[in-house]
Structure formats: C-alpha cells, structure tokens
Amino acid sequence: RMGLLPPVPAQLVDKEYIIEYESPITRALKMSQLTGITRTVEVLTPFAEVAPEMFDKFDFDKMAEYTAEQMEMPVQLLRTDKDVKKLRDARAAKQAQMEELAAADSMANTAAAGGKAMESMAKVKQMS
After folding, report:
1. CA distance linking residue 33 with residue 71, whole number of Å
2. What does the alpha-carbon distance between residue 73 and residue 67 come to, in Å, rounded to a whole number?
3. N or C: which terminus of the chain has fewer CB atoms within 10 Å of its end residue's CB?
4. Please, what is the angle between helix 24-48 and helix 60-70, to 10°?
5. Which of 40, 21, 17, 28 is nearest to 70 (CA)?
6. Are 79 and 87 in contact, with CB atoms under 8 Å apart?
7. pLDDT at residue 17 greater than cutoff 90
8. How confident is the model at residue 77 (pLDDT cuts 50, 70, 90)?
9. Counting runs of H as helices and runs of E as strands, what totals does the chain give?
10. Sequential DSSP letters for the chain
11. What is the pLDDT of residues 91-123, one digit of tens each?
12. Residue 70 and residue 34 in contact, taking contact as beta carbons nearer than 8 Å
C-alpha cells in the first residue's frame, strides 16, 4: 500500500465489494444499449394493438431494473420485490372488485329491463 491510501473504513473490513472503473467508452456502450431497449419498445408498441401477447416475450421488471442501474439511479429509490408484489396484489384485488361491481350492475339492469317487459306484457294481456 505504500501509505498512499487512507485506512480501509471499518464497515468495509472483511466485506466483499466490487470496484467498477468506467471509461467514456463504457458509458457510451451503456447508453447505446438503453437506446436499443427504448427503440425496441417504441417500434413494437403499435403492433401490440393487434397482438398484445407479443410483449410476453419481454421481462419488463428486469428491463426497468436494468435501465435504472445503467442510468445510475439510486437503488434505495426502487421498490423491493416484496413491495411490488403487495402493490400488484392490491391492484388486482381492486380490479376484481370493480369487475364484480360491473357484473352486478349489468345483472341489475337486465333484471330491471326484464321486469319492465313483464309489466308491459301484463298490460297488453289486460287490454285484450
């Protein structure tokens, strides 16, 4: 060490860590890859209107993590997988509830229309 570096901080002693050196070429390569991701999604999005299942080929969670990492977004700003699952479960439950309410409303409207039809039929029968 020749005394040129300060002592290793206590929290790093006996820990594994990776030091990454970035050159301008490495940063340009990362940006090129991100441009590729962005362009791929942009080009395919119109086709998804016809075949939405085509996006099943992509793991958008991994894409988001990779993009955040390459853009050097602080990790603490990303939700944990556990938090994402909770959020998605809550969203799915709310969607299911909305669908149930819509189905119940539809059934109520159908019943009301059926009731009115029966009333009309009874009136016609009374007139004859």
Report:
1. 11
2. 9
3. C
4. 150
5. 28
6. yes
7. no
8. very high
9. 3, 0
10. -TT-SPPPPGGGTT---------HHHHHHHHHHHHHHHHHHHHHHHHHTT-GGGGGGS-HHHHHHHHHHHTT--GGGSPPHHHHHHHHHHHHHHHHHHHHHHHHHHHHHHHHHHHHHHHHHHHHHHH-
11. 999 999 998 888 888 877 776 776 676 777 777
12. yes
For 97, the token pair is: 């509830």
Place of tokens 């999604």: 41
Question: How does pLDDT run across 32-54, given as a tens digit for each residue?
Answer: 999 999 999 999 999 999 999 99
Asked if 84 contacts 61 with a C-beta cutoff of 8 angstroms, the reply is yes
Q: What is the CA radius of gyration of the chain?
A: 30
Side chain identity, residue 112: A
Q: Is the pTM of this model over 0.90?
A: no
